[in-house]
Amino acid sequence: MSEHNIDQRKAYVADVVEKINNSASVVLVDYRGINVEQDTAMRKALREAGVEYRVIKNSALSRAFEQTGNVGYDEYFNGPTAAAFGPESDPVAPCRILNEYAGKTPMSIKCGVVEGKKFDENGIKSLASIPEKPVLLAQLLGLLTSPMRSLAIAVSEVAKKQSA
Question: Is the per-residue pLDDT at 84 higher than 80?
Fold first, then answer.
């Protein structure tokens, strides 16, 4: 093997290490069976959510995961593998989008790392059910304002009865 080839492989792994370090989440999928139309639509949805999606060699992923302290993933580095790198702004975005496409294509979720924690396929599917941040904030705001609104209505009703 030439030194040039070794340097290229090291640079490739270093690039994957950088992607992992700069992402809030990494979700691995086996993309077998997905057709071009489905793949194009999925990549568009991922891109719009700020998620980078790449097919990566298992050997490079294995080394990169090891170098970033993510151990115990060796069983997932077989067969065709693509990785989705989630942004800090929405670490669960790749989980949601890939889970959606895994449900309607032959593609399957392997595993993932979300904010430093390891998740298997079922864990990723569970995370996928978490709504986007703006939706969560709206739900929280609704929960916080609901008791105040109820109290205001009750006080108003009491005031109406006393004035009548």
Answer: yes
